[in-house]
Fold this sequence. Notes:
Chain A is mainly beta and 108 residues long.
Amino acid sequence: EIVLTQSPGTLSLSPGERATLSCRASQSGFSSYLAWYQQKPGQAPRLLIYGASSRATGIPDRFSGSGSGTDFTLTISRLEPEDVAVYYCQQYGTTPRTFGQGTKVEIK
Amino acid sequence: EVQLLESGGGFIQPGGSLRLSCAASGFTFSNYAMSWVRQAPGKGLEWVSSISVSTTYDADSVKGRFTISRDDSRNTLYLQMNSLRAEDTAVYYCAKGSGMSYWYFDVWGRGTLVTVSS
Lengths: 108, 118
């Protein structure tokens, strides 16, 4: 099973700042089959990024994904108040599908 | 518009059974893998089960107790949950796969809450 470790656990930034979220895999072998999801309080998750770097339909371009192998990053270039959420990475190249434990993004 | 609507959650005693349903609309249901993902109260996301055309995949934590199935004629996904345990308490989300192989979850339902307690 591929274990995904996200860091930091919580990120507290001011509006307009850059947010950098990390997702590290315990092993490679799932190619770039890595997705990122956003979950706002009381809501279902929403797909942000797939294939490590492709934005899903309707996702603002301030969200970007990068990385390969075992290290992946989600970047929010200019944080907005509506970006307050928990962000999860997930690999879909192997079974069992696994999620990271999440990074909570807060606004200062 | 693609929509997924879960139903069937509720309160159940340990050892009991429950069947969840997910009604899909707005896309050709039979062309996509479908999955269940759960979230225990205050916790992160956990993949439960997936089904492609006829192949099923289950997390070790539910293997032998949960059965995923689909009825393409009714555009409906199911999760039969037997021998329920307290640790199965969670919101269960139905999620549409992006295709039939190496799928990510591109659309999610709102979820249905399952509470297992005596």
